[in-house]
Task: inverse folding
């Protein structure tokens, strides 16, 4: 027993800043994390006010991943013809093309690349369009998905995003390739800005709820 | 840099496998007490999903069987089994320990009316104590029921056996010769499908999503056990329940032969299904596209001036360092930027390349259109990959962009003329690490597992990027490795069977201490000279030359080592035995996930022969392999096992944790440690050093280019 205690006390030390933790340390952390029950506290959404939002520098979105009980503010990192990329302080990014999710990095089940051009062109009337997604699989291969998506006719709906009320058109989208099936919802204001959306990322991540602040 | 495997490997393996075994085999398949897809003791024609790995612990009659099973292709699977057989030879007699190998192949797929049909060999390479062959058919009827029938030989032909139907082909099939199991370990070709055959069969019925009922008629009469009065089967019928409380875990409880209860447990993972899917690596900086707005807003330093170049190089080096990579050299001429870098962070070299190429879109002036990236490993430039900036700008976030970016990249040899590495600025050259280590010895002759834990101080110093001094000190804290039964001596020089004496070493030991020099004598040639204490048991000089083109599935190497046996205390002294060993090696990447290797030469005990190795490596780095070595050492001299063979498993740590790393957790399940067919273990062998930064490995890892 003493020896085991000594073994645990033998904290690994190193001068190598780049060195990652040993597998043993990583495994120990996983065990500890699993054994420590999370304290349900006030969420980021509960505490965030419009006044605080107005203090935030740059362009910011509020993102929630319900399946992971995760919420975050994401700041605009860069906007290029390939999309607008937002980043969390932990280094997770989401890339949008005019409000439509195009790529993600750092979530685990990530979209490597997405194409929503046909969907965006078809907005406004009920109809179908094709959407492409490239996923990175656990085998490190690209899983290419060609999905047929059914778009609903816009329905007027008033939404509140952190105390501000917007008049929007709600559009529901159902996509399927026979195997993968998911729903997205977009609330688009009169200027064509996607004020709020609930968009599917992947089976392991679920949906993201995105609110333009 | 120290290239040996991390300490604490096996403990982490055990913890993490048990934590994250998930996502593996869906419903419909159960593992039997032999750890193969089957019912209770009988096999089925089921195959599990490709890449599935199962560890099964099963107790049956007087045996405790631990089986590792791997589904290598959709049709082919193999197993390695380590079993304890109690009262072997009669009541009150000692137990014996037995290693065996199985293979099975499904050659007919299930159709609407047609059953799946498979052929299998159990224990075809061991002592033959479980030796059996079978032909089995399984048909699913509806959603829940599946029915199996088969024809068995050997153990599976021992109950109510009848004349072998294969006798119509050749009378020789009708009798099964006695197996000479003095040494074991040979392919039992004289026995395969010979002797009486018998019928077995059964069914499985999925009662609920997690519970399956199993029943079978066993054709194993346990004849040997009955003869030695250890066990007598009163009924051929076995029944049982299999319970899968969650994916990745299976438990079985069975009533065997009308006599006794038996239990089994399996842990199942799938190599292709990384628990963290794409991993939690921090996102890369997106590509900066040269739009009119960007060109108008940004100003770039002029690389043709010394100050401008230094500014570019400085900021690029810092950004690359932020990615956990090291900028070794930068050269900008006209529209071409050449970058040489080291990648201590990402297992997939294309992922490092993708990140550097993205950073270059920010750092390079707009007229630079071509990036040439050269990954450097232990000072050796391994390849030169040319990527167009326009492709980076156009293909980012575009479906199909991964494949197109690979098609448009040019992979070439890094010319030898570029010389060996210049000194990278501000690179940390001295590294040390104090950490616990854990060693495990599995499946020795009397205990399934023995272990040792202690502290290890390791350090390395890069005198030059290609001249590396590295070593380690170890202090054992506790363990029972030294209590292992002395390994039965062989007729050869004891080069490995004296491991017990090394395990007894008290006080501080030096597991390795080497000076290694790497060089590149030609565009496709790599060289290495390593001197010092190469491993725990041998020290000396090791030299190696490797021909490995950046764009070829083939590589050839030659290695010569002059080594002397180290003192058991593993400090500075040597014993009398010295030997010159050497091999020529051929490596081939089959481009379907299989890697082959043949080494021909002289081994540590002075025996000559060849090693054949075949690995199945998935694109995510999860690797399972098997090898065998045939040498001119006679079976008598070699001792138990007849020749060296084994199975190895190597899992990248990013597979478990989802954070980028080049580390691996590796273990090998050798049949037995003997003296024949043993090679000296040298850190930093060249093929493993450079091949990951060359094709076909680059293509196989390209899925992470945009990650």
Result:
């Amino acid at each position: 027993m003493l020896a085991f205690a000594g073994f645990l006390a033998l904290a690994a030390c190193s001068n190598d800043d780049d060195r990652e933790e040993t597998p043993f340390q990583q495994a120990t952390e996983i065990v500890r994390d699993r054994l420590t029950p999370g304290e349900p506290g006030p969420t980021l959404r509960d505490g965030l006010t419009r006044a605080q939002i107005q203090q935030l520098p740059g362009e910011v979105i509020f993102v929630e991943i319900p399946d992971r009980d995760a919420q975050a503010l994401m700041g605009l990192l860069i906007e290029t013809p390939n999309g607008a990329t937002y980043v969390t302080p932990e280094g997770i990014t989401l890339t949008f093309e005019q409000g439509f999710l195009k790529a993600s990095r750092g979530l685990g089940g990530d979209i490597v690349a997405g194409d929503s051009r046909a969907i965006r062109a078809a907005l406004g009337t009920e109809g179908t369009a094709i959407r492409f997604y490239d996923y990175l699989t656990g085998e490190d291969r690209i899983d290419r998905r060609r999905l047929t998506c059914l778009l609903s006719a816009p329905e007027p709906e008033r939404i509140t995003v952190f105390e501000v009320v917007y008049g929007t058109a709600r559009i529901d989208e159902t996509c399927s390739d026979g195997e993968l099936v998911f729903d997205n919802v977009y609330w688009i204001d009169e200027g064509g800005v996607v004020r709020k959306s609930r968009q599917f990322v992947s089976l392991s991540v679920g949906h993201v709820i995105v609110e333009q602040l | 840099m120290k290239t040996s495997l991390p300490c604490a490997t096996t403990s982490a393996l055990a913890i993490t496998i048990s934590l994250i075994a998930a996502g593996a085999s869906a419903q419909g398949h159960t593992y039997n007490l032999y750890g193969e897809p089957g019912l209770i003791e009988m096999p089925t024609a089921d195959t599990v999903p490709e890449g599935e790995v199962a560890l099964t612990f099963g107790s049956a009659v007087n045996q405790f069987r631990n089986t590792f099973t791997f589904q290598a292709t959709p049709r082919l699977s193999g197993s390695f089994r380590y079993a304890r057989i109690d009262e072997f030879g009669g009541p009150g007699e000692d137990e014996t320990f037995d290693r065996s190998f199985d293979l099975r192949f499904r050659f007919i797929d299930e159709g609407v009316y047609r059953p799946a049909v498979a052929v299998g060999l159990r224990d075809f390479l061991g002592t033959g104590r479980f030796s059996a062959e079978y032909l089995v058919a399984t048909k699913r009827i509806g959603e829940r029921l599946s029915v199996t029938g088969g024809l068995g030989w050997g153990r599976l032909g021992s109950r109510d056996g009848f004349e072998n139907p294969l006798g119509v082909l050749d009378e020789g099939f009708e009798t099964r010769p006695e197996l000479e199991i003095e040494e074991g370990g040979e392919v039992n070709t004289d026995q395969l499908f010979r002797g009486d055959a018998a019928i077995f069969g059964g069914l499985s019925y999925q009662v609920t999503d997690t519970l399956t009922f199993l029943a079978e008629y066993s054709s194993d009469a346990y004849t040997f056990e009955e003869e030695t009065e250890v066990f007598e089967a009163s009924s051929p019928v076995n029944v049982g329940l299999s319970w899968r409380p969650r994916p990745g875990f299976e438990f079985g409880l069975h009533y065997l032969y009308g006599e006794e209860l038996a239990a089994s447990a399996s842990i199942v993972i799938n190599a292709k299904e990384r628990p963290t899917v794409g991993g939690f690596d921090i996102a890369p900086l997106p590509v900066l596209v040269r739009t009119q707005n960007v060109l108008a807003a940004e100003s770039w330093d002029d690389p043709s001036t010394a100050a401008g170049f230094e500014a570019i190089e400085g900021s690029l080096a810092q950004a690359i360092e932020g990615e956990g990579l090291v900028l070794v050299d930068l050269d900008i001429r006209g529209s071409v930027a050449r970058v040489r870098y080291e990648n201590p962070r990402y297992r997939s070299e294309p992922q490092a390349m993708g990140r550097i190429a993205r950073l270059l879109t920010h750092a390079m002036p707009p007229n630079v259109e071509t990036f040439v990236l050269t990954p450097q490993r232990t000072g050796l430039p391994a390849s030169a990959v040319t990527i167009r900036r326009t492709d980076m700008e156009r293909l980012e976030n575009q479906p199909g962009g991964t494949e197109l970016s690979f098609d448009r990249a040019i992979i070439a040899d890094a010319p030898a003329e570029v010389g060996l590495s210049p000194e990278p600025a501000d690179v940390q050259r001295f590294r040390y690490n104090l950490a616990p280590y854990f060693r495990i010895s599995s499946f020795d002759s009397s205990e399934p597992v023995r272990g040792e834990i202690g502290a290890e101080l390791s350090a390395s110093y890069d005198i030059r990027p290609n001249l590396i001094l590295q070593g380690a000190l170890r202090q054992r804290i506790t363990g029972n490795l030294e209590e292992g039964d002395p390994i039965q001596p062989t007729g050869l020089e004891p080069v490995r069977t004296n491991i017990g004496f090394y395990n007894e070493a008290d006080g501080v030991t030096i597991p390795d201490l080497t000076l290694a020099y790497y060089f590149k004598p030609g565009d496709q040639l790599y060289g290495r000279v390593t001197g010092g204490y190469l491993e725990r048991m041998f020290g000396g000089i090791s030299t190696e030359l490797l021909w490995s083109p950046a764009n070829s599935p083939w590589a050839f190497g030659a290695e010569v080592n002059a080594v002397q046996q180290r003192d058991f205390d593993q400090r500075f002294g040597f014993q009398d035995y010295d030997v010159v060993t050497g091999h020529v090696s051929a490596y081939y990447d089959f481009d379907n996930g299989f890697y082959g290797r043949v080494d021909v030469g002289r081994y540590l005990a002075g025996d000559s022969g060849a090693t054949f190795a075949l690995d199945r490596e998935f694109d995510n780095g999860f690797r399972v392999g098997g090898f065998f070595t045939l040498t001119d050492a006679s079976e008598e001299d070699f001792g138990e096992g007849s020749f060296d063979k084994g199975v190895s498993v190597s899992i990248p740590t990013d597979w478990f944790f989802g954070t980028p790393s080049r580390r691996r957790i590796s273990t090998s399940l050798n049949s037995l440690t003997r003296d024949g067919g043993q090679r000296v273990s040298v850190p930093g062998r060249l093929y493993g050093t450079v091949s990951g930064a060359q094709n076909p490995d680059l293509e196989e890892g390209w899925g992470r280019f945009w990650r």
In short: The two ends of chain B are 26 Å apart (CA to CA). The longest helix of chain B spans residues 306-322. Chain B touches chain A through 77 residues (CB under 8 Å).
